[in-house]
Amino acid sequence: MTSPREELLPSTRRALLHRVATAQAEGRAPSLVASVLRDGELVWTEGRTCVEGHAPDENVQYRIGSITKTFTAVLVMRLRDEGVLDLSDPLEKHLPGTAAGDVTLAELLAHTAGLAAETPGEWWERTPASQRPEIGDVLGEQPFKHATGRRFHYSNPGYTLLGSLVEALRGDSWEAVLRREILEPLGLDRTSAQPQAPHAGGWAVHPWADVMMPEPAEDLGLMAPAGQLWSTTADLARFGAFLLEGDDRVLSADSVREMRAPASPAQAGDWNVTYGLGVQLIRGDGGTLVGHGGSLPGFMAGLWASEEDGLVAVTLTNCTSGPAVTALAFDLLKIVAEAEPRIPEAWRPLPELDKALLELAGPWYWGTSAFVLRPRAAGAVELSPLSGGGRGSRFRPNGDGSWTGLDGYFAGEVLRAVRRPDGAVSHLDLGSFFFTREPYDAAAPVPGGVDPEGWRGLSL
After folding, report:
1. Quick one: which of 270, 256, 440, 437 has its CA closest to 362?
2. What is the three-class DSSP state of 64?
3. Structure confidence by residue, pLDDT tens digits, 410-419
4. Is 253 left (phi over 0), alpha (psi -120 to 50) or beta?
C-alpha cells in the first residue's frame, strides 16, 4: 500500500498511459498531454504526439481557452475580500456606461446575467480584436437573451465585463493584475497571455480525412479575460490544487470554497451539472468535481479536481475538435481514485478545547429527530443528524459564544447555547429551532409546549 506522497503504482501508470494514448489515437490529435496531481504533488505526466521523438511534457504551453475565466473570477473575488466591492453590487457602480449596468457581479460570475453567449458580428475567436475595440462592440445593440437572474446562460461577453471591471478598479491592465496577484504568488511561471516557447501550435484536423491545417492564433483584445491564456499541465495542476485548498497569498480557503458552491440553477434534465463563481461543477458517483473546460480554434483543455480524493487532472491538446478532453480528465481521476484510494490522515486529538464547548458535545433533539454536536478545531462546531441524511452544517465561532453556519441548510444562520439562571445549558437556539437534550424536553421552552402527561403507551 502506498502513502499519499509516493509515486503512483506501475499498474496505475500503465492504465493512465493507455487511456491517454487511446484518446490521442482515436481523437486524431496532433498532440495531447495530461498530468495528475495528488495531495499537492505532481505524480504523473504523459504526452503523445504524431511527431516522432517530440512528445510534449508538463512544461509545454497550450492555449487553455475558457479556463481563463476562472483566473478572472479569482481576481474579482480578491476585490470582494478586500472590501472594494460586493458581489451584489450592480456593474454600473464600478464600471459605468455599459449596456449591462443593472446586472450584479455575482450574476456575471455565475453566467446568470442573461447576456448573449457570444459577441455580435463575426466569430470573435478567429477574427482580429480590432473588430471589437470598445465594450459596446462586445455587447452589441441587444446584449440580453434572457431575463436577468432567471437561468444559466454561458456568456463570454460577461467575462469581458469582469475583466474591464478589474482594470478599472486596479488601474492597470488585466494581464498585469493577473500576473501580479495570481501567477507570481502561486509560482505559475509558464502561464501567460502570449505564447512562450516551448509551446504547441494550433491545428484543425479534417473530420473525414487524416489531414490537417494550422489555425490562426488571434489576440483576443477586450475578450482576453474570457479566454486568452496559455499554460501547461504543471501550472494548471497547481492552480487546481489552489482551487481546492486556497492560498492566503491569493485567496483564502473559505473564498475558494465559496467559488465552488453552486451559484446558478442547474439545467432541466441535467441536475448534476451547474456553475459556481467562475468554476463548473459536476456531480458524479465519487462526489463533486470542480474545474473548467476550455477551447479556442486549434486547442482544447480540461482542468478538473476532486476534493474528496485530493486529485487534480489536466488535459491539453492542440486541435479544434477530436479528443473529449473533459471526459479524459474525468477518467484519469477515476483511474487513480479507484486503483489507489486516498490514505486518510492519522487521527489526532484537538490541540485544545474549551470546557464550555465540551459541555455542548453529544446528542441533541429537534423535536424527535436526533442530532449530534461535535466540537472541531479553533472553536468551530458541527451539528448533523445522528443517522441518515438531513439538515446539518458546520459552524464558525463568532467570538461572543455564538456560531454562524458555513454550509448546508443552516448556512448563514446563528447558533446559540441558551443557559438557565444557574448556568446550565437549557437548549440550543438555531434559526427559531430549539434543540434539547431530550426529545421534547419538558424542562426546556419547547415552542408550542409539551403535553403535561408526557410520553405514554397505547392501551388496546
Report:
1. 437
2. coil
3. 999 999 999 9
4. alpha
Q: Is 256 helix (H, G, I), strand (E, B) or coil?
A: helix
Question: What are the CA-CA distances from residue 405 to residues 137, 195, 245, 280, 385 (Å)?
Answer: 44, 44, 20, 24, 15
Q: Which helix (H) or strand (E) covers residue 165, if one does? A: helix 156-170
C-alpha cell at 72: 478572472
Instruction: Check residue 460 and give its pLDDT.
Output: 60
As a whole number of angstroms, the distance between CA 243 and CA 257 comes to 8
- CA-to-CA distance for 192 and 399, rounded, in angstroms? 43
C-alpha to C-alpha distance for 422 and 442, rounded to whole angstroms = 17
DSSP secondary structure string for all residues of 172-200: S-HHHHHIIIIIHHHT-TT-BSS--SSBP
What is the full DSSP assignment across 282-333? Answer: EEETTEEEEEEEEEETTEEEEEEEETTTTEEEEEEESBSSSS-HHHHHHHHH
C-alpha span between 358 and 9 (Å, rounded):
43
1 confidence band (pLDDT: 50, 70, 90) = very low
Three cell numbers at 207?
A: 473530420
The C-alpha atoms of residue 317 and residue 78 are separated, in whole angstroms, by 31
* Residue 23 CB neighbour total at 10 angstroms: 23
* Number of other CB atoms surrounding residue 213 within 10 Å: 9
Does residue 385 have a pLDDT over 90? yes
**All three cell numbers of 62:** 497550450
Q: Which three cell numbers stand for residue 300?
A: 482544447
Q: Cα–Cα distance between 348 and 358 in angstroms, integer?
A: 17
Q: In sequence order, what E strands does 50-207 have?
A: 62-63, 203-205
Under 8 Å CB-to-CB from 131, ≥6 apart: which residues? 121, 122, 124, 137
